[in-house]
Amino acid sequence: MARIKSARVILTCPGRNFTTLKIETEDGLTGLGDATVNGRELAVASYLTDHMIPALIGREAHQIEDIWQYFYRGAYWRRGPITMAAIAAVDTALWDIKAKAAGMPLYQLLGGASRTGVMVYGHANGGTLDETIAEARRYREMGYKAIRLQTGVPGLASTYGVSGDKLFYEPADAALPTENVWSTVKYLPTVPRLFEAAREALGWDVHLLHDVHHRLTPIEAARLGKDLEPYRPFWIEDPTPAENQESFRLIRQHTTTPLAVGEVFNTVWDCKDLIQNQLIDYIRTTVVHAGGISHMRRIAHLAELYGVRTGSHGATDLSPVCMGAALHFDLWVPNFGVQEYMRHTAETDAVFPHAYSFKDGDLHPGEAVGHGVEIDEALAAQFPYRPASLPVNRLEDGTMHNW
Ligand code: GCO
Ligand code: MG
Q1: Tens of pLDDT along the chain (403 residues)?
Q2: What is the distance in A from the centroid of ligand 1 to the CA of 317?
Q3: Running DSSP on this structure, what letter comes out for residue 318?
Q4: Catalytic residue status for 160
Q5: Is 385 a catalytic residue?
Q6: Which residue(s) pair with 354 in the sheet?
Q7: How many Cβ atoms sit within 10 Å of the Cβ of residue 160?
Q8: Ligand 1 pocket, mutate which of 169, 211, 236 (most atoms under 8 A from CB)
Q9: Residue nearest atom 3 in ligand 1 by C-alpha distance
Q10: Best substitution site from 123, 148, 158, 213 to test ligand 1's pocket, by max atoms within 8 Å of Cβ?
């Protein structure tokens, strides 16, 4: 047993901003937790520094559950992305410490490995169908068994998920939000064409995914799901915004294309109705945005009862600390589906040395004790925080839309 001696937030921008919590115990163990919320990094830093850390010092580091409950139930203004990312960072850092104290990789504490590796999907994207297919072939050559396909939409200057950088993607591209233009009418026919071309070029022995990024109405999403059925997508993601969860019933009534939702969810309460009513197939909550390992475990257990599998968010804005923790979770969780893996820049990888590695389409968390991700603080200090915001989206007539 050991008390928490210190805790502090480290902000760094090795290619993009990351908010990281470092906790140290009186017996000299340290643990790291990711607290990054893209475009709101300082808000989580303040929540941690001004409100949580003062109440954390002196607590027993091994009482992870009690500390989680203290900050969740103890926050009268509970839930929400900032609060839950801050709680997640504490939780992840404490699991890291507990596993280090036990002398084991974190997955062993969760219940041990349920599989030999964690199947990940990468992002093939391009301005045209041909470019996207060429990228997808490159991912196949790298060994990927699952690939997300995003392609440019003729007539639109830019599209979600299509970027110049091919292995990672950073949409937070300016201090104030960039304004993008969207047209559902132009977008809808491009995706079935893309999947048809992809099946022709890549065959059937590969999982193909697509992210709609919250942009369709329920009936438009139902149409897309139906149109994609012949190409057997692994999933379509965030087909419609999830505030009104009944929307998914409408989509479900029309299509057997599997649905994935949840990267912007913070708690099991956001997932509960979708899971219990079997309106989705994959739950995309992730360690940093959904309360850490402790809370992800609750979500996964609920999902398991209803045949819903995990498919955690793993974009570039989730730090290697989140990725490391997520991989231990994925290696253990019985109802695992897939893990998103958008790579990080070389600078990010250098700031966060990690034990996880990629081989034959799988990631493995490695055998280092804890979650296996550390931070080089001297190097981190060379990359100071830079304001960056996610874009916003307007229809062609100027109406605000979902990005
Ligand atoms: C995904 C996501 C990301 C988000 C990004 C926002 O499926 O990977 O939709 O690309 O847009 O994480 O910060
Ligand atoms: Mg997404």
Answers
A1: 899 999 999 999 999 999 999 999 999 999 999 999 999 999 999 999 999 999 999 999 999 999 999 999 999 999 999 999 999 999 999 999 999 999 999 999 999 999 999 999 999 999 999 999 999 999 999 999 999 999 999 999 999 999 888 787 889 999 999 999 999 999 999 999 999 999 999 999 999 999 999 999 999 999 999 999 999 999 999 999 999 999 999 999 999 999 999 999 999 999 999 999 999 999 999 999 999 999 999 999 999 999 999 999 999 999 999 999 999 999 999 999 999 999 999 999 999 999 999 999 999 999 999 999 999 999 999 999 999 999 999 999 999 999 9
A2: 8
A3: S
A4: yes
A5: no
A6: 373
A7: 22
A8: 211
A9: 315
A10: 213
CA dist 150 and 126 (Å) reads 7
pTM of the model: 0.98
Going along the chain from its start, the domains and CATH numbers come out as 4-105 (3.30.390.10), 110-367 (3.20.20.120)
- Contact between 210 and 233 under an 8 Å Cβ cutoff? The reply is yes
Ligand 2 centre distance from Cα of residue 193 (Å): 21
For the chain, the first-to-last Cα distance in angstroms comes to 46
Residue type, 316: T
Ligand 2 center–CA 266 separation, angstroms: 15
